Structure formats: C-alpha cells, structure tokens
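Researcher: Let's try something more involved. This one mixes different molecule types, so please make sure each is placed in the same coordinate frame as the others.
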Amino acid sequence: MKEILTVKDLDLTFDTLDGPVNVLRGVSLSVREHERVALVGESGSGKSVTARAILGLLPERNRRLNGSVVFEGSDLVTERPSRLRERRGRDMTMIFQDPMAALNPVYTIRNQFLAVLSRSHPELNAKQAEARMSDALRDVSIIDPTRVLDSYSFQLSGGLNQRVMIAMGLISRPRLLIADEPGTALDVTVQQQTLLIMKRLSESYGTSILFISHNLGVVRQFADRVCVMYSGRIVEEATTAELFANPRHPYTRALLASVPRLSSDELPEPIEGSVPDPREPIKGCPFKPRCALATDDCLQPIPLREFGTQRVACIHQEEFA
Amino acid sequence: MSQSSARWRGWRRFARNKLSVLGAVLIAIVFFCAIFAPYVAPYPEHAGVVVNFLDANQPPSAKYWLGTDTVGRDVLSRIIFGFRNSLMLGAVVIAISITIGTAIGMAAAYLGGKTELVLMRITDIFLAIPSLVLAMAILGLAKPSQLYAMIAMATVWWPWHARLVYGIVRSLKYEGFVVAAEVVGASPLRVMFSELLPNCAPNLFTKASLDMGFVILLGASLSFLGMGAPPPTPDLGTMVSEGAQYLPDIWWLSVMAGMGIFIVVLGFNLVADGLRDLFDIVG
Amino acid sequence: MSPPLLKVTKANKVFHVGSATVHAVTDISLTVNKGETVAVVGESGSGKTTLANLILGIEIPTSGEVELAGEQLKGRRSKTVRRKIGLVQQNPYSTLNPRKSIGQAIGLPLDVHGIGSRAERRRRIGELLEKVGLNAGHRDRRPLALSGGQRQRVAIARALTTNPDLLVLDEPTSSLDVSVQAHILRLLRDLQQEFDLAYLFITHDLGVVRVIASRVVVMYRGRVVEEGSVAAIFRSPRHRYTQLLLASIPTVSEEDDAFKPDWPWDADVKGDGDPAEGCPFRSRCPFAVERCGQEFPDMRGSGDHRYACFNPRPETSEAIVNLQAEKLERKKA
Ligand SMILES: Nc1ncnc2c1ncn2[C@@H]1O[C@H](COP(=O)(O)OP(=O)(O)OP(=O)(O)O)[C@@H](O)[C@H]1O
Ligand SMILES: Nc1ncnc2c1ncn2[C@@H]1O[C@H](COP(=O)(O)OP(=O)(O)OP(=O)(O)O)[C@@H](O)[C@H]1O
Ligand SMILES: [Mg+2]
Ligand SMILES: [Mg+2]
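Model: All components are placed in one shared frame. Result:
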C-alpha cells in the first residue's frame, strides 16, 4: 500500500536558556493508507513533539528541526506556513492530549465546534451545521448532543469533553488523523466505541491514523503496527501481533510488565529509574542505565536491526530469539 | 531549579527583547530625574513662582537647553519636575484602579451568581461612558486639583482592570488547584487572594505598565483642558496647553513638554511587552 | 460494631443546564470501612466525580445523607471534618498552582487549619515529600519543573498533610503512563498499610481495580448497578453492564483475555422506550427483557455481591473458574 506519511531522520533540538535540549534523535516512521500506527512510550519520550513536528505546530522560535516529513508527496518541513495551515483541519487533523486545555471554558461547545466545522464545510447553513454536529456527537455515543452543545466545557465530564474533541477531529474526514492519547479519560466501553468509530473511519474513508497512547491494551486492539519510542528515538517497531507475542527490546518488555494484569492480583512491576534528561548527551543505548541486560557494549551506537518484519535497537537479541 | 534562578532566567529572557530594554532605560531615566529633580534640574527654583523677564522666551541655547517660557523659567527644569507630577499621578491612579478593579473582577468571577450579575453590570455601565467625558463630568463638580484629577481618572480606569481580572479568574476557577484549596477548607478570600491573584499578576503588571502611559496621557489631556493641577505646579499637560497659545513662534514650549510626555508613554509601553517574558513561569 | 468510616445513604444530585435537568447521581448508597479500598467504576459521565464531590462537600446533595465516622455532614463542613478527608485529582497538570512552590502547595492545608509553627510546617513538608518518594529538595521547586508522576506524588502528599482517614482518589493514575502508574499504585499501597488509610478509588481502569481494591461499586448513569468484593465481581459479574465493562478491558496478552467474560458484540439491541424510566442500561443491552423498560430493578443478591438486573448473567461455572485458577497457577510456576 502507498505510504501517506513518511517521517525520516527527524531530529529536533530546542535551544533553551539552559542550553540545547535534544528531544528527537533521528525518528523515522511511516504510515500507509488505511493503516493505523501506534506510537507508544513513557511520558517525555517525545511522542507529542513528534506529532506536533509532523503537523508543523512546533513553536517557531528557538528550535532546530532536521529531517523530512513527507505527506502525500510534499515535504511539510519546508512547506509554506499558509499552505500548511490550509492542510491542517482539512487533510490532517489532530486530537489533542488535554481536552480541557484545548477547549475554551468561556465559549459554549457549540461555538467552538462551529468554528471547526466552518473551516472544512463553509457552505453549510446554520441548520445543516447543527445537524452535522449532532450526528458527529452521536457517533461518539453522546446521547444528548443538544445539551452537550449548549454546555461549557467545565459543565461536562472529562470523558464527554474528550469525545467532543474526537468528534471535532473527525468531522472533516481527514486523510491523516493524529490522535494524541484520545482515550485517557474514557471508560473502557466508550473507549471501545470511539476506537471502533475511528477504525470504521479509517477503513471506509481510507483515513490513516497515527495513534499516540501509553495504554498498551488499547494499542493491541487498535493498531496494525506499533512503534515504541524511548528518549526521542524509536527503539522497536513491529506489527501489533508480533510485538505483543514477542517483545524484543528490554524497554518494551519492561513497559509490558508495568501493566496491571487480569490474570494476577499482584501489583505490576514499575520500571526503576527515569527517562534520561534530554539535556544530557547520550552515548549508545538510552535505556542502558535502567536495563538489566546492560553491558559495556551498550555504549556503542545502536542501530535498528531487522528481525523479520520487526526492527529492534538492542544488541542483546540473540539471547531472546 | 531554585526560585532565584527562575527569576534570573526571566530577566535573561527580558533582556533578549531589545525594545523592552530601551523602554526600561527610558523609564529609569525618567524615574531618576523625578526622584532627584532638585539635584538634576539646572534651575530647581524655576519649578515654583519665579519671574525673570530678562530671560523670557529664550529659544533653546547652551544656557537653557530647552529654552525658557514666557516668564523666563527654564523649560528643562520644569519638565523634570513635571515628570514627578506625571509619575505620581500615574502611580496613584493605577494603584487605586487596580485595587478596585481586581476586587470587583475577582469577586464577580469567583463568587458568581447574583454578585457576578450586579458587579459586571456596573462595570459595563462605566465602560460604556467614554473616559474623557466621564472624567470631565466628575471634575466639573469640583475645583481643578491634582487630587480630583486622580480620583476622576481612577473612576474611569478601574472597569478595564475589573474586566481583565474577571476574564482570567473565570477561566481559572475550575482548575484543579482551586478545587483542591476549597476542599481543604480554604475560605473564599484565601482562594481569591492566595491562589487566584498570583495567577492574575503577570497580566495585571503588563496592563498596568501599558496603562501608566495612557493615564499620564489622559492626565495631560485633562490639564491641557485646564482641569489638572493648578499653576504654578509644573505639569507637562498644562505646559503643552499654555505653550500652544504661542505657537508657532515660541514653539519649544509645547514641543518640548510634548516630547517629555512622549518619552514616558513610550517607555512604559515598551516595557509592558517585556514584562510578559519576565513573569512567564519557569520551573 | 463501630459505624463505617464513610456512609452515603440514598444520595441524589440534580443539575440544571439551560432547560435540561441532569440526574448526575440517583439514590446512591455506599460504605467505606477504615483501611479498605473501595473502587468506583463506571462509564464516563456516570456521576463518579459528582459522588466524590458530594463526599468532599464541594457539592451539596439534592437529597440523601453523607456520614463520616457516624457523624452526619450537613451544610458547611467544619475544619475537623475537612481534615479527615483528602482529595487526589485526576489531572496532575492542573492540580498544583503554577505560581506556588511545591512546599507551599503541600503546606496549604497546614496554613488553612493553622497547624504548627513555621519550622514545624517546614519539617512536616519535608517529611511528607520523603514519604511520597520525593525529597526535601523539591520543596522550593515549581510544579512546572516536575513530571506528571512527580506532580501526582505532590498531590498525594498534600492530601496526606492533615492525617486524613479517607482519601478520595478521582482517577489518580489515568493521565500517567503505565510505568509511573505502577509506581503510584505501589506508593498508595504502602501508604495505606502505614497509615491505615481508606481509599475511595475512582477509576475506569478495571485492571487497576483488580490489583488495588478490595471492593467495587459499579455505576451506570448515576446509579449503582452492582457492588461486591473484587474477587466475586471479577469471577462472576452479574449485571450486564459489568459484564460489558469487563469484556471491554483492553488487555495486553491472551492469558488475560481468558479472564474476560464474553459479550455478544454483534447482537441486536432494541433500545426503545423512555430512557428516563426503567433500567438506564437497557438501550445498550442485548439481554433486556420487557420488565427492564418498566422499572429500575431493586438490588438483589446477598452480602458481598449485590446487583440490580432482571436478567443477570448466570454465575460463572466452577469449571471455568477452576480453569482460570489453573492458568494462574501455571503462570506462577
Ligand atoms: N517547547 C519546548 N521546549 C523545550 N523542551 C520541550 C518543548 N516541548 C517539549 N519539550 C521536551 O520534549 C520532551 C518530549 O516531550 P513530549 O511532550 O513529546 O513527551 P510525550 O512523549 O508526549 O509525553 P506524555 O506521555 O507525557 O505526553 C520532554 O522532555 C519535554 O520537556
Ligand atoms: N456543575 C455541573 N453542572 C451541570 N452538569 C454537571 C455538572 N457537573 C457534572 N454534571 C453532569 O453530571 C453528569 C455526571 O458527571 P461526572 O463528572 O460526575 O461524571 P464522571 O462519572 O466523573 O465522568 P468521567 O469519568 O468522565 O470523569 C454528567 O452528565 C455531567 O455533564
Ligand atoms: Mg504527550
Ligand atoms: Mg470524573
């Protein structure tokens, strides 16, 4: 299938007063038509920044961005801002991580939704727009769209706000949807439903989805392919089935071990230590300080190695295979 | 990061903005002149009632850098003393109007309900009347004096501050930290002043700095219309208006006083922009 | 027998939005005993936060009662009562005032209640920071310098300042990543053991419920539809909504999938009738019978497992339970 989005060697440094912060260190990933790709990793690993870099939503000042983001044949890194703005909200949309921050408490949901809708469908009259919005809200299992449209964000529960965000993101039927943790405040049944809606959208309109999440269970259900991110780089990439059946990178394994299990009532194992400080230069494998398998060889540069369709950035592979 | 280094980084960001630094320098000069006017001014006694017809109507020269007025007083000295007046006026007006505006905007937004309705209605009424007209109306009731001018201007100004605070607080009052304070049992006063006010401060300071310029300008307009400080107090607005009678021959009277106003207003405006950086929160 | 630590009796809360009325909480009764963890799960918008707000005194119930250690809480809460209940909120990014230091945040309850001298407060703040796995050096930092997990630790420390008996935790880990969540869950367990704390743990993550709670209350559209011990409910969910909830858990392995009840995903649902009457879940329930549209079922079942359903899921057969137990054994071995 055709690749709709190809990110290559994305390298991002913020120049802060404390010196340069290297948040992305050569991220490469691709999303094909109809495909749902998940980006997982701990907080601070650079998932949201990757999403913003793709959409050209990074702050203009004090950043150095290298690499390319090719979307439908054109490089977004070098594209004119006006052209990029046009694409956003129409060809590619984003569902933001924090709905409370993305929704303005001073306007009703209706006002904000109308603003979004009028960008992609300026031709609709008031009545049609109202119907469109109601349908979109019903699609995300909101049973009383009128009440929700009348409300302010603070009058709605966190989950309702998130569903509103999802409905807004989907209304223009984009080519590429980037969903940054769209399910954090949703209960599992609604989560299932919204995932199903997104899945349906991707299947019937060919919308590709880049799905950012730290919920590995959701990823297992939803994604076709998974990229595991750690400290600004992708350390493992595999099809979903493969990754969950046979996680290779020690980080992926540790991540899986920290998920509470139904089959056990023991508390899950957290990963000791923390994500490396992006201000410090890293030699070799960024996971080394937290890794049980670490040896001196891990200080060498670690390339992504292929194992079938699986790509792993770890030298301790033979032990597992 | 410790607090002092956070502050330090704020300064560094401020310093990056060249125009704000220029503004800060202008204001510093003006403040210095105002505070040390008796030592800075070449002829401090000219701030009062001095008549020196020999040197009247002199154009700018080495002796009188900015020339002299119709009774022979040094214009530069009077401008320097005028700064005192202007800054005092601005500071008092802003202080009063921030206090009233913050109290009203905060109470309306945080308490909500009937309080909100009544307070914001009152604010809107004040906002609806053009400032100069309102100030003149108030001043019309009394003899012209610096004090009345200040009260009149504060009356005109507070609704803007009320609106500003109202907007900020309204979007903050559902934040977790506000709820957390309420749950612990913090009184509404504590929530408003200890939790919400610090979050309004950066915007208030920025606005205050911008307003400082405008208030001084408005004060000057009032004096220009003869409703400010009575003579012989040196006042930049009064100087412009008096000098206007002698235009264009004795041009330096109005123009120099006008420049003085311009410098103060510009300085505060430039600084306002940088203040945002200074107060931006860092870890 | 001494009264339970927290007792909510027939609590109701009705909101008015425009011309609509929202029954956020309807006839909810629940108890929490000293030292135990009761999880409240339920769909988003089912009234969990509203219930928490009623318990915390942020909202006043339209009707019904809240009792703390046998004492009825009415009107404005006294400071003594407020000290007894702590709150940990969902969003670590808004729970701390960005303009105040961590020390000030944790010290707030001490300030409000006028506890201790300056030096004592300082010491206590340092002590609390250590308790939650930070250190006294964090005292002068600003929230912005902290990660989500660290902020949540600070929020927990703040909730512990007044030595409460009960913590209300409103989705405390749902915006944290899994590994941080695992840390926080451990922290909560350790604190519970050390201080004999009771938790009212609101969440929508049933995996978390499984490992941290001893009892579960399942809410749907403002009502309690099932409650019981974690073991009983996970072994044999009876209410159809609970069944759906468990069946929807996004698991990470096939092993775990074996512990989920099945659900007829493709079954037809009628979903007709007045939603205000009868069982609110009926519009999504393929098992609905006629009676479901007429009245809300009374709670049935006994002791440690009660549910409100006319056509409940049959109890899980011994055979399956044994099979699951066997799998568990094998995994441990
Ligand atoms: N404008 C910025 N200036 C400096 N550093 C930044 C900026 N934006 C993000 N960062 C840093 O980039 C890193 C990656 O952040 P990002 O938000 O992408 O993490 P994430 O993987 O999305 O985490 P989460 O799961 O918490 O959302 C962090 O260390 C963050 O502090
Ligand atoms: N202040 C309010 N005004 C009007 N309606 C409200 C208010 N607070 C809550 N509601 C409504 O009450 C219902 C229950 O909300 P609540 O926040 O308790 O749900 P929740 O179970 O906590 O959901 P979530 O899991 O999404 O946080 C929702 O329909 C919500 O819109
Ligand atoms: Mg993110
Ligand atoms: Mg809630």
